[in-house]
Automatic annotation (TrEMBL):
It comes from the Bacteria. Gene3D superfamilies: 2,3-Dihydroxybiphenyl 1,2-Dioxygenase, domain 1. It comes from Levilactobacillus bambusae. This is VOC family protein. The lineage of its organism: Bacteria, Bacillati, Bacillota, Bacilli, Lactobacillales.
């Protein structure tokens, strides 16, 4: 199982400024960027506040312009509806694995401890076929995602979303 753990830093509307700063300060290159309006384009049922249209949903910055080497960061804005409890700069750990089976395997290991909480149940996006967000027993949020992607035209089709309780 190949795995890469990358910090994901959330901001309260100033992700674009953070991206510029980190690209300059760390000599990072942008590999991928998507705004919340892109999410809404792929899935019109995605709730989108007009004030969030141009906020950054997901941006990948790396040292060598390759998203697969683990030397980088992920930067994103929260939506107005999500907000940030502690302001800008909240951090999650993003664990990338090869496929959905590996996501489920790691999720089940986390859930073996009753103190683990599901934040977002398993879902697909335009950049990963399987993502789950969990808070571990120590308060650390993990986004576990597969590297395989689904077609942007059917990324929500057949979603096996589960309720936010343990399977």
């Amino acid at each position: 199982m190949n795995r890469i753990t990358t910090p994901m830093i959330y901001f309260d509307g100033d992700a674009r400024d953070a991206i510029s700063f980190y690209m300059s300060a760390l000599d990072f290159q942008m590999v991928f960027i998507e705004t919340f309006s892109n999410y809404h384009f792929h899935d019109p049922s995605f709730p989108l506040n007009p004030a969030d249209r141009n906020k950054i949903a997901y941006a990948v910055l790396t040292a060598d312009g390759n998203s697969g080497n683990g030397d980088g960061i992920i930067v994103a804005d929260r939506t107005i509806d999500e907000g940030l409890e502690d302001g800008s700069g909240a951090v999650e750990l993003n664990l990338q694995v090869n496929n959905r089976r590996e996501v489920l395997h790691i999720e089940n290991k986390f859930l073996a401890d009753d103190r683990t909480q599901i934040i977002d149940d398993l879902y697909p996006t335009a950049y990963s076929s399987s993502i789950v967000r969990l808070m571990d027993p120590f308060g650390i949020t993990w986004r576990i995602m597969s590297n395989d992607r689904v077609s942007p035209f059917n990324w929500f089709a057949g979603s096996n979303r589960r309720p936010k309780n343990k399977p």
